[in-house]
Amino acid sequence: MQIVLALIFGGAVGALAHFTVGARDSRGAALGPMVGAVVGAGVWAALTWTGLEATNAWLWIASLGAPIVVVSVLLPLLAKLRAAHDQRRREQLGIA
């Protein structure tokens, strides 16, 4: 049941990152929260499957820290890739 905490925290981190990381217009509003929630729950599930229990501090640190790292790296990277793709497409269409 504690996996829900990892889901909520990951979603909250993703929502915060959506509003703090630039280029919001190049992605949907749900991308950040969804990525954060999936990463938090995925790390939690993977670590519990390896045998860590909810009383282990490393489980909490990893499942709450992973969304912070992944979302803060992924959103700017996706914005950069989207801008480059859009520019290439404009050049192909002859409108840039």
UniProtKB/TrEMBL annotation:
<feature type="transmembrane region" description="Helical">
    <location>
        <begin position="58"/>
        <end position="79"/>
    </location>
</feature>
<keyword id="KW-0812">Transmembrane</keyword>
<feature type="transmembrane region" description="Helical">
    <location>
        <begin position="6"/>
        <end position="23"/>
    </location>
</feature>
<keyword id="KW-0472">Membrane</keyword>
<protein>
    <recommendedName>
        <fullName>Major facilitator superfamily (MFS) profile domain-containing protein</fullName>
    </recommendedName>
</protein>
<keyword id="KW-1133">Transmembrane helix</keyword>
<feature type="transmembrane region" description="Helical">
    <location>
        <begin position="30"/>
        <end position="52"/>
    </location>
</feature>
